[in-house]
Design a protein that fits this description.
By secondary structure, this protein is of the alpha/beta class. The protein contains 12 helices and 13 strands.
């Protein structure tokens, strides 16, 4: 069974999508665009630029977001205006005439690409996803296993703990936890602060896997990434019953800028943790610079297999975003067809068996004694 460990469904982004308001939703979306690997260009002539104009240098928090009339456009684009000039971030594929992805879109894509099951992740830019993820999973339980999201920078509060309990009641099967939301509150706390003990203990007690995305806050630097990874390592040791997934995998820009992994000792120690799985999903971040079938990525996957073992690697696509660079089938086939160094058993593990093992609903039922 082929399982995509990383995909999304979402409502039309022009709306609040579960947030208290559309304005708050736009703030989350704008923050994502400040450091995007998507193409950003001037509407008038197509001149490319970066997302740096969306925030003030030296302030990576929400307070540093610039007033650019940020809005949701058509054809996969997020639009904004600077000094009377309109700009587009091509964050979703051009063929997405409106930025909306109902479960049925993902089902059609899965059928076409030959994917049997998908883990629906979350993220505040998509919306407050608990209800919509639960809706998709409950509509199509044989096709979707959905994660819940929490208000990460305030996960220790009574309000967030109550929402966690509500999400469990909706039937969600795992936790999505990312660090970029800490920008909303000016990075005023770390996720391993003692105040989080109740939250992490609840996750541990429920036996939920945690899909953890390490954004390199607060400085978006190599040092910030390593500091956060060391904090995660401490959590993994503190809660040994939790299975963890490193969302997006190791950052190439920090550790493989020359085409070969070069991990510091403390990074290797965290990645080797027995309870950690590592996503491999290079096209979403490097598909704009590398060409299919991504031999650069294949080389990095081979090194990861040799360093960590195929039993620690899981394939993900980041659909539908990835189609801004390649098709869904190509995001799978660069591993399925072209990673010839993987044995048949290793491919079976990477393309489904490893992630299935951490979800009770995806494990084979035991025969009655």
């Amino acid at each position: 069974m082929i399982i995509d460990c990383h995909a999304h469904v979402f409502q039309h982004w022009a709306g609040a999508c579960g947030h208290p308001s559309s304005e708050i939703h736009r703030k989350y979306m704008q923050k994502v665009q400040t450091r995007t690997s998507a193409s950003v260009f001037r509407a008038r002539d197509g001149k490319e630029m970066s997302g740096a104009a969306l925030f003030r240098a030296g302030d990576n928090s929400w307070a540093g977001l610039t007033d650019v009339g940020f809005r949701v456009g058509n054809y996969g684009r997020l639009d904004f205006t600077i000094d009377g000039e309109d700009y587009h971030s091509q964050y979703m594929p051009v063929g997405m005439q409106q930025i909306v992805a109902p479960p049925e879109l993902m089902l059609a894509q899965m059928t076409y690409a030959g994917v049997d099951h998908t883990i629906l992740q979350a993220g505040w830019g998509y919306g407050a996803m608990n209800d919509y993820n639960a809706f998709a999973q409950n509509q199509y339980p044989d096709k979707f296993t959905a994660l819940l999201n929490v208000d990460e920078p305030r996960a220790y509060t009574d309000e967030t703990l109550a929402e966690f309990d509500r999400a469990i009641g909706l039937g969600l099967k795992g936790v999505y936890f990312a660090l970029d939301a800490y920008a909303r509150n000016g990075f005023d706390i770390h996720f391993d602060d003692p105040r989080y003990a109740t939250f992490w203990s609840k996750v541990d007690a429920k036996g939920l896997p945690v899909f953890f995305e390490i954004t390199a806050i607060p400085d978006y630097s190599r040092d910030s990434y390593i500091a956060n990874l060391k904090r995660l390592h401490g959590l993994m040791d503190r809660y040994p019953n939790i299975r963890w997934v490193l969302v997006m995998g190791p950052p190439v820009g920090f550790f493989a800028s020359e085409g070969k992994w070069d991990f510091p000792a403390e990074v290797l120690a965290a990645y080797h943790h027995e309870n950690l799985l590592i996503e491999i999903m290079f096209p979403i971040t490097w598909g704009g610079k590398w060409d299919y079938p991504y031999p650069e990525a294949q080389g990095l996957i081979a090194q990861m297999r040799d360093l960590f073992g195929a039993h620690k690697l899981i394939w993900g696509s980041d659909m539908p975003n990835v189609e801004r660079f390649c098709t869904y089938r190509q995001s799978l086939d660069y591993v399925r067809r072209y990673c010839t160094f993987l044995s048949a058993e290793e491919k079976k593990a990477v393309l489904g068996a490893n992630v299935a093992a951490i979800f009770a609903n995806l494990q084979p039922a035991r025969a009655a004694a």
